[in-house]
Amino acid sequence: MKEIILRPITKGNIAELWAVSYGPLADLEWMNWDGPYFQEPILTWEEFRTGFGKSCIDNPLRNAIYADNRLIGIVSAYWEDNDLHQWLEFGIAIYDPQLWNQGVGTQAIKQWVSYLFALEPNIQRIGYTTWSGNHRMMKLGEKLGMTKEAQIRKVRYWQDHYYDSVKYGVLREEWQQKR
């Protein structure tokens, strides 16, 4: 099993993050699973550096995932309810498909959810949204003991098929009991 560590995204590792996500080292297969129906563009270094990447630097709601000291992905979180700060959702992207189905995401999300609950001591729930075409993300929630809280049928259209939007969540006390 690989050693999985979450680290802050800094000016020192932002170029490496772009290289593995969109740049010359990137295997863009991850984009077929990370909300592909949004048809997000492949970001150039300049677009990444001044946009998404800039928003990641020193942001406590963004961390890089390292496997055996190699940057392989990102975990993120955002406030679904904006300024109310009661409804926190997270995301994960592992850019190297050879690391999928090896427990890397499970290890990263265990650390991330524990970190988020510690960072935000007043919130009671953390969750995420995926789509029914992403079986790995659905399995992740089940593996971590999260509750499938909603399934909105046939609202994600991708490659001539409709898929469901699926929401998973866990309450603070449930998370603490499982740990």
Task: Walk me through this protein's architecture.
- The protein is built from 6 helices and 7 strands; from the N terminus they run βαααβββαβαββα.
- It is α+β, with helices and mostly antiparallel strands.
- A 7-stranded mixed β-sheet has the order 1-2-3-4-5-7-6, with helices on both faces.
- The longest helix is centred in the middle third of the chain and has 16 residues.
Indicate how many domains the architecture comprises.
Answer: 1
The CATH homology group name:
Gcn5-related N-acetyltransferase (GNAT)
Question: Structural class, from secondary structure content?
Answer: alpha+beta
CATH-level-2 architecture: 3-Layer(aba) Sandwich
Annotation field: number of helices: 6
Q: Please state the oligomeric state of the protein chains shown.
A: single chain
Q: Can you count the beta strands? A: 7
The average pLDDT value, as a whole number, equals: 97
| H/E element sequence | EHHHEEEHEHEEH
Q: Assess the beta-strand content as a share of residues.
A: 25-35%
End-to-end Cα distance, whole Å, is 20 Å
* Helical content class: 25-40%
CATH fold node name: Aminopeptidase
Strand order of the largest sheet: 1-2-3-4-5-7-6
CATH class assignment:
Alpha Beta
Largest sheet: 7 strands, mixed
Model regions low in confidence, pLDDT < 50 over at least 5 residues: none
Q: Which of globular, elongated, flat, extended, rod-shaped describes the shape?
A: globular
Gyration radius, rounded: 16 Å
Draw up the topology in text.
Blueprint: E1 4-8, H1 14-21, H2 45-50, H3 52-56, E2 62-67, E3 70-79, E4 88-94, H4 104-119, E5 125-131, H5 135-143, E6 147-158, E7 161-171, H6 172-178
